[in-house]
Structures are given as C-alpha cells and as structure tokens.
Amino acid sequence: MLYIVGIGPGSPGQLTGRAREALLQSDTIIGNDSYLAQLGRLIEGKEVIRSTMGQEVERAKRSIELSRSQTVSIVSGGDAGIYGMASIVLEVLEHEGGGIPVEVIPGITAANAAASLLGSPLSGDFAAVSLSDLLTPIEVIERRLHSAFSMGTPVVLYNPKSRGRPHNFLLAMEIAGKYRDSGTPVGIVKNAYRDGEEIQVVTLGEIALADGMVDMHTTVIVGGEDSRIWRNGQDVKGIITPRGYHRKYVY
C-alpha cells in the first residue's frame, strides 16, 4: 500500500485524522527532512527515509519500490496534490506499471492556512500561482500572472522568493500593479502554524516595506478588486474579501 500524505502547514494540530491514521499504519515513512521533522513522535518506531529538496524523483521511485512489499507513506507539505508530491509519484507509478494500491490523502494547503490567519481574503473565486521557475519557465509564470491578476480576484502566490531567484516576487508585484490600485491589501504570512509565525498586512503601494519578510516559507495573498483591510476596532487584523451578501441583505 502506498499513501501519499499531505501533512498541512506543519503543526500537529493541522494534520487531518486520515493523514494521522495513514502514518500510524505505515511501516516506512519517506519525505523531505524538513517535513519529517514536523511529524515528531508520530513517526517514532518507523523506518524513516529522509531526503532533501531536488530529490523528488528518487523519493517517488523509492516509495513505489518499497510499497510492493509493505505499507509506505510518502509525505508532502501542505496538500500533496497542490505543488506537492502526488503528481510525480503517480507519473512514476504510471510509467513503471504494476497494481499497487494508492491513496492520496489531502492536507491543508498554504492558501488555506495563510487565509485563515488573515481573516477571510479568499471568500469567493481566487487564483494561485507559484513563482518558482525550477520546473516552469519564467515566461510561462509571467503570462499566468497577467491572466490571474486580470480577473480581479485575489491571487495567492506560492514559493514567492528564494536566494536563487530574488527577483520573481518583484516581477509579480509589478504585474499586480498593472491591474490593482496602490491601496489593494496584501497579506504576508510566514511560517503559518509553525514556530516563527509572522503575519503582516500592507497595501500594494507599501509592498517594498515587507519585501524582507518574503521567502520560501511565506505565502502572499494579493487582494482582489473588492478586498479591503479588516479591522477589529482600530487594529488591523487582516483582509476581508466580501462574498456579496451586502448586495442582497441588510446587516
């Protein structure tokens, strides 16, 4: 049996019940070392195979090989099917053939985690774009950013910036500025539900002030045309994107 397990943002409290069951039922756990470290006592007593970023294909092949004779969980941060391990594992399995039973177990993706900490920025339609150009050419990312921001809905940016590609986030903000006014709220969430959690809300015009907070552990949500900063009293708490109730009801 092969489980492809989305472990959510990293906090044990954000792990789904089914993910927990799969991990406990597994003989072997395979994953990126940073994700395995978040599982703590859940994987005690298991055979644990650790790897690093860039070894996804090898990890997928190893999990399939072992699952022919035992129960294996290959873990992925967030949701395994959203910028995660599910696609490469299923592609390799399809290529190699064989009748191994597989279950993809969903997890809380970064968009959900960040949105919950910001209030309600994703109440209706929204788009998600990864700024990582390791597997997707930057020209394709740029075209997708134009399409996403042109819709007028909130846009969630995954993998916004790394040491090797510090300029992709600035490019995304430049494109956002072509479709949004400078007062558009931008929510920046770093280490959601993990140690070192940071939350900041700025406007698109102020984004340079928060640039230093943005890295690979950060999710950025750029508000849509209807989004506004949410205040509880005088304090800025996050972002609200109205779903449209104000157009139908009095409250």
Descriptive overview:
The chain has helices at 17-25, 33-36, 56-67, 86-96, 110-118, 138-150, 168-179; strands spanning 2-6, 28-32, 47-51, 72-76, 102-105, 119-120, 127-130, 155-158, 185-190, 198-203, 218-222, 228-232, 235-240. It has 251 residues and is an alpha/beta fold. The protein has two domains: 2-105, Tetrapyrrole methylase, N-terminal domain (Cobalt-precorrin-4 Transmethylase, domain 1); 110-246, Methyltransferase, Cobalt-precorrin-4 Transmethylase, Domain 2 (2-Layer Sandwich), CATH 3.30.950.10. It has a five-stranded parallel β-sheet with strand order 3-2-4-1-5, with helices on both faces. Strands 7-8-11-9-10 form a five-stranded mixed β-sheet, with helices on both faces. The protein has a three-stranded mixed β-sheet with strand order 6-13-12. Helix 6 packs parallel to helix 7 (168-179). The longest helix has 13 residues, at 138-150. It is globular and about 60 Å long.
